[in-house]
Amino acid sequence: MDRGDDDGGGGDEVAATAAPPTDVPAERTARMRRERRKAQKKKKAPPAVDHQPNVMSELPFALASSAAWEQLGFTRTESTQKKRKRKRGDSGGRVDSEEEEEKKKKKKQKESQRPNYFVSIPITNAQISAAVVEVQEAVLQQEPRLVKAMIPAPTLHITLLVTHLANQEQVGLAATALDKAMPSLAELLVGRDLVLPFSGVGHFRKEVVFVGLAPGQHRDTLEKLAEVLRRCFEEQGLLQGDSRGFEPHLTIMKLSKAPKLRSQGLKRVNPDFYSSYTDRFFGDQRVERVDLCSMLKKKQQDGYYHTESSLQLVYM
């Protein structure tokens, strides 16, 4: 009995001091959970820094250039671009500016010297115009996109020379040049009609399609007529540097009229489109007058180019 009482009493005391508590207060449990969450967050969070990270430095060396950065789809901000320009220095900026201004000046000068007037012989024979329209329609049946490359029948002509007239004063000088050419032209024609027979269809680099001028004495006369006009324009100071050779032809279509066709893949006019007309006779054109025409001004009511001045040929 005594041993049993001693054993039992001693066991109770050991259990009270060594065994973990079976009922932990709720507040303590909650606090422990919060501390564990904080510890986990600290492990996951990146180390704090005092400045924004340099994203470019995280890229491989091969991608660390601005060009490579832009290839990835990112663009430099306007402020960054301004900073880069400032880093080049004031002198470098002035050089770039001067070069750009020089380029603009040359471009403007080139544009200001582009031909805007021409001297021509109009096609007035309805037979020739009708035959040209027939060829154009045959081509369009095979390639409708060429419609904008066609030369309208009312504007058909033979170009004798082209020039740039900067103002109305120079237009007046050009009209004077036509008048001064009359005595020389009358002497050249000496009472004989100048008749131009048109035959066959050809091309220049498959970009310009034209009706050709048949061979004969009339070609030599026409070339001399064009030379007289060029000389009179040169005397008025209106034809400096015009050294292009004279190749008489009647243009019926040209791709330069429709530049968008090139982006559509149509860079040439296939000669097969008009192969059945290569030996066709189109008709005779009697040269009745020479016109000074504007390339840019609105066309006349009859569809022909705006005519500043005309020289009626007199066959004595």
TrEMBL record:
Q: Which biological process terms from the Gene Ontology are attached to this UniProt entry? A: regulation of protein kinase A signaling
Q: Which GO terms describe its molecular function?
A: protein kinase A regulatory subunit binding
SUPFAM superfamilies recorded: LigT-like
Ranges annotated as biased composition (Basic residues): 33-45
- List, alphabetically, the GO terms of the cellular component aspect: cytosol
| Compositionally biased tracts (Acidic residues) | 1-10
Q: Where is this region: Disordered?
A: 1-57, 74-113
Q: Which residues form the A-kinase anchor protein 7-like phosphoesterase domain?
A: 115-313
Q: Which InterPro entries match?
A: AKAP7-like_phosphoesterase, AKAP7_isoform_gamma, Cyclic_Pdiesterase
This one is known as: A-kinase anchor protein 7 isoform gamma
Organism equals Merluccius polli (Benguela hake)
Please name the gene that encodes this protein. Answer: AKAP7_0
